[in-house]
Amino acid sequence: MSSNVTAVACGDSHSLFVESNGSLWAMGADTEGQLGDGTNVNHYFPEPVYSSGVNAVAAGYYYSLFRTSVGTKQVTVSLLGMGDDEFGQLGDNATTNYYSPEAIQSTTLPPYDVVTFAGGQWHTLFVRSNGSLWGMGFNGAGQLGNGGTMDQHSPVQIRSNNVVAAAAGGDHSLFIDSAGGLWAMGFNAYGELSDNSTTDKHTPEQVGANVTAIAAGAYFSLYIKTDGSLWGMGYDASGQLGLGVDTATNKYLPVQIVASNVVAVSAGEYHSLFLKSDGSLWGMGFNDGQLGDGTYMNQLFPIRIVPPPPTPVLIGYSFSGNNVTLNASNGLLGATYYAITSTNMALPASQWTVISTKQLSGDGNFTIIATNAVIPAAKQQFFLIQLLY
After folding, report:
1. For residue range 355-380, what is the model confidence (pLDDT) as tens digits?
2. What are the boundaries of each domain within the chain?
3. For residues 30 and 119, what is the distance between their CA atoms, to the nearest angstrom?
């Protein structure tokens, strides 16, 4: 494919991207028409769906959304959708799946256009240029914020002004106002609304301040503050909050994940990704390969994905009886390292014996202490430190 990709989005089992010429491409599962090619046939390679004018894209569970801008002096901005429409999430006043793109909103400027939009499991949110927030689709937990729980098959206004961004999770919603206030509504059994309760909210409530970016997963929420810190709340059973706790302990109030330098964040069903100001990509949580770290292990701390973590270097060692202390450099916060030993240097590292492991709580130099690791009868013994993949 061309390298001129300008936007990407992922649904439950399908992917979308936009090229710099305004064309929309899709691949993956197409069972509900979410690829928008007029069929329900899965595609294992990218296929063109829309030829021009596309400048933004989002994906829900089994449906897709994209925005087009057409014209020069008089610009027509349209929000289009395709795929699963069982709960009205395509906003066309129906509940029929669409296998080709259909227009949800279309406006010739001025006055108003769609500036940002988000797809959840079965509900959709979008913000117009006048700052109004709108939603449609499944509303069983109050995630549309209109005071009720009835599904909406056409867009309903949630807030009339001052909204700058929105995120749609499994059954909850988040948005940011122009002053940086964080608002939440919908399902709250796991604390994802961050109000220290487990009560669903059918209208928006403010739960934070000084917020610049948001993301919503299945039952958890993430946000970035003006100081570049990353915070999370809600369900953490797979490590998606990056706190290093492998339990189902829910967080009913925000907890800080990273102290600074975070510039963008995204949430999957049970995993999280974020970008730092140095261009590095980090991830944590459930891992069937979606973290791209070369393993299928859940990651409970944030791990750096791109560029790959640096190789640890053994810089010193000492012995005390049959115990050995190994000092190393190039450690990375949240990464797991292990010490291995062998009496035969010619063996591949995969055949050496693991004597100790350690997960780091900070970057830089670190120490691993291995007890009873020395083999007294051995004529020679070798030690290495490796990053656990």
Report:
1. 999 988 888 999 999 999 999 999 89
2. 5-306, 313-387
3. 17
pTM for this prediction: 0.80
Per residue in 64-83, pLDDT (tens digit) is 999 998 887 778 889 999 99
* Span 218-274, pLDDT tens digits: 999 999 999 999 999 999 999 999 988 756 688 999 999 999 999 999 998 999 999
Say which CATH topology domain 5-306 has: Methylamine Dehydrogenase; Chain H (2.130.10)
